Structures are given as C-alpha cells and as structure tokens.
Amino acid sequence: MTSSSSTLASPRPEADRRRWFALAIVMTAAFMDLVDVTIVNVAIPSIQRDEGASFSHIQWITAGYALAFAAGLITGGRLGDIYGRKRLFLIGIGGFTLASALCGFAVNPDMLVASRILQGAMAALMVPQVLSIVHATFPAHERGKVFGMFGAIVGLGAVSGPILGALLTEWNLFGLEWRPIFLINLPVGIAGLILGRKFITESKAPHALKLDLVGVVLVTLGLLMLLYPLTRGRELGWPTWGYVVMAGALVVFAALVAYEKRKAARDGSPLVELSLFKVKSFAAGIAVQTVFGVGLGIFFLVWTLYMQVGLGWTALRAGLTGVPFSIAVSVAAGMSVQKLVPRFGRKVLQAGALIMAAGVLIYIWEAERYGMSIASWQMALPLVVMGAGMGLIVAPLTDAILSEVPREHSGSASGLINTVQQMGNALGLGLVSVVFFGSMSDHLPGPEVGPAFVDAFQNALIWVAVVMTAIFLLMFALPKRPAQHVEGAETAGTPGITPLDKAPELVG
C-alpha cells in the first residue's frame, strides 16, 4: 500500500522533465511581456524622431498597450478556464509574436499604435494562463519554489528591459533604428509556440464561468471615452465635445455597475464581482492600486522624455541611469515581504508611500538646482529613495488587499487587482498631456526645448508626489496586519509574489 502511494505521488521522469520544460516556456513568455512594457519607454524619443510621431501618438504607443491589456485580462483568464489554458496560451503567444512583427515593420505612427493595441490584447490572452498552467502542472508543495522563480523573473525583467531597449536602439542593427526592440520577440515567440505545443499539458476549470462580453465592452468603452479626450484634448485645443465625452464615461461606468449587479443575480458570472467592494480593505486596496498605477504611468513616460529629449541624453545613458532604481525596488521588495511586513504590518506600505514621495521631492529639488547640467550620478540618490519606497509597496500590497477577501472570491479579486493597476497606468499615461505637455508651448525654438522639458518634468513630479500622499492616506483603510494565508495560500495568494503572479482566474 505504501509503495503504491509512493508511486502515485512521484511523477514519472518523462512527466517531470515535461513540466519543467513547460515552466521554462511560460516563464519565458512572462519575461517577454514584462520586458516589452519596459523596453518601449526608453526607445520612445527615437520613435518620435524617426517616425515624426506626435506627442499623442507617443502616449498611445504606451497607453494603448496598457488599455488593451487591462480590458482583456479577466476575459483572457475566463477563456482559458473555458476553452483550455494551453490553447489560449498558444493563441496569445502566437498573436503577441505577430503583433510584435507588425510593430517592428510599422510604416507610420498610426500603424504602430494599432499594432501596440493588438499586442496588449494578445498579452491579455497569454499572461493569465501562465500561473494557471503552473497550478495545473505542479503539486502544491512545489509551487513556493516556482513562485520564487517568478519573483526573480519579475526583477530581471524590470532591470534588463530598459538596458536592452537602450542597447538595441543605440546599436541601430541593420539600420533598423528602434525596430529591433519589437523584432527581438519573434525568435522567442516562435520557439515558445513550437515548444509549448509539445510540452505544456492542457487543463480547464471544472466549472468555468460564462463570459461577460457586455461587461468587457462597457469597461473598454468607458475607458476609451475617458482617455481619448485626455490624450488628444491639448492637441485639439480642448474642444467642448471632449468634456462631453469624458462626462459620458461616468454614465457608462454607472451602466456597468447596474448591469453587473443584474448579471450577478441572474447567472453568478459577472466580469466584476461587486460584492467584493463591501470588504473595506479590498475596496481601499483597489483604490490604492489604481492611484498607484496612475502615478507610475505619469512618472515613467515623463522621466524618459526628460532625460532623452530635455537633457539630450542617449538611450543607453538613460537606460543605465535607471539601474539604481530597479536594484532598489528588488532589494526593498525582498526585505518588505520577508522581514518588515510580518513585524510592522501596514506601516511598511505607508512608509513606502512616504519614502517614494520623499524621493520625488529630492528629484524636483535636484532638477531645479542643476538644470540642464545634471549628471546621472546626481540622480542616483532620488532614484534609490524612490525605488526603495516602491519596493516596500509593490511586493506586499496584493496580499494586504486579499487578506480579508473570502477565499471563494480570491480568483476574481486577484484578476481585478491586476486589471485596475493596468487601467490606472493607462489613465496616468493619458494624464501626461495635462501634467507634462500642458505646461509647455507647442512651438518652442531649439534652445528653449531643454529648459521647457526640465520645467515640465518638475511640474509632473509634483503631481506624482501628490499621488503618493493620497496613497498614504488611502492605506489607513488596509488591515493593520494582513492575514497569513496558510491553508489558503495557493488560493488567496502567496506572500512575496508581485502583481504579475496575481493574474486573473488563476484559481478556477
């Protein structure tokens, strides 16, 4: 009897090899998505210069991806549950690779924006399947080790994306300028597609929920009605229709809430589980995640424009300048989860918000003091302070949000966390036209461009500091000490795993 049980518990050597190959494939796909988000920012000035892209094009190259990714995340998770995670992963990685090729060979800014939106939509099919496949492939006692690997991949993606983007842009391979930042995905994606078909085992949720296509349409429509006028408003002279459309977005979101209530009562499969918002810590946490996404969306885009357009730095110099920030995020994230949060609870996250705000204020002071002559090493202090603050927040935030959520709703809650973070990011990118470009003239003589960008950067950072202060206040509604998920760890979330690992519908 003992021998039989032992045999059942131990996977065959071939099966063991297959699952580790499957893990390598899905982790590579997750890394590809992570790098693609960070790799683009550093190449934006090159894209603007070579393609003649307007500032609204630049915003949509980043915001379009975030919007499509956000709108499709929960739906992508549900599709995997219904039709098979392997199938949806292969469709997603294939579509992502095709969209990367379209981005790389885009003939004008409009085609690049459309291809980026397609790329975001395909990522929304691919990314939610990653941890679903892990859950279906690995036994519970091995998942901690696997999640640790994912944490390392997230950190590696954050550090390597900007540097890789800078190198590919600087090297100008085959005279392709910025295009290799997208084309590099082609061999990786094709290999993932071929190997995924062979090594990934198919799995579905036993009781998959139905799709809520109306909910998806309403969410996407509402966000577009809010973001499009924000992004194009300044360029078009803030027409009256823009304000009308933005007001209409509120009506659409109200309709979404009403529809979701009816759908929950009718068949129990709404896109957004509204009952979750009755949990105080979850509602506050979602607000924190959204506002945090807004702040990050503003900062990373204006930071890139400040260094490369305002200060005239190369893409490589800008990419290397960001290394201290990425390292500080990784180190602080590890410390917050392993040592600080278990001892001090919510105060660690609040300290992170205040430390990040302090870093922003130091950056404003340095940008004012040194102006156009500021050096990379002088930026290291504010970047390390900001990175440390961000690291204290990002790693434990998801667990803090989920700590009081009923376990049966943890899948929906995790998906919603990821979705609102991306929506906040898209909103922040839309707001760049107001907080950054809105403070400078449209037609600046050459010598005035640099100083104008420096001033606009400081103006945008003031907004980021305000956002961090708002986050600090919102965090008072989080539980003082997030509950320790012991029995429900694999359902409600694993401490120390970043938001990537909280992909929607991971736990059928």
Would you give an account of this structure?
The chain is mainly alpha-helical and 508 residues long. Helices cover 78% and strands 0% of the residues. The chain has 18 helices and no strands. The chain has helices spanning 2-9, 13-51, 55-83, 85-104, 109-137, 140-171, 180-183, 185-199, 213-232, 240-267, 280-310, 315-321, 323-344, 346-370, 376-402, 410-435, 446-474, 489-492. α4 runs antiparallel to α5 (109-137) and α9 runs antiparallel to α10 (240-267). It is globular. It starts with a helix and ends in a 16-residue tail after the last helix. The model is unreliable at 1-10 and 485-508 (pLDDT under 50).
Summarize the structure.
The chain has 18 helices and no strands. The chain is mostly helical.
Task: Describe the SSE topology.
Blueprint: H1 2-9, H2 13-51, H3 55-83, H4 85-104, H5 109-137, H6 140-171, H7 180-183, H8 185-199, H9 213-232, H10 240-267, H11 280-310, H12 315-321, H13 323-344, H14 346-370, H15 376-402, H16 410-435, H17 446-474, H18 489-492
Tags for this entry?
disordered N terminus; mainly alpha; 0% strand; 18 helices; 508 residues
Report the span from N to C terminus. 32 Å
- Tell me the radius of gyration: 22 Å
Shape: globular
Structural class, by secondary structure, is mainly alpha
Largest sheet: none
Helix content: over 70%
Low-confidence stretches: 1-10, 485-508
Mean pLDDT: 81
Count of individual helical segments: 18
User: Can you count the beta strands?
Assistant: 0
How much of the sequence is in beta strands?
Answer: under 5%
The H/E string reads HHHHHHHHHHHHHHHHHH
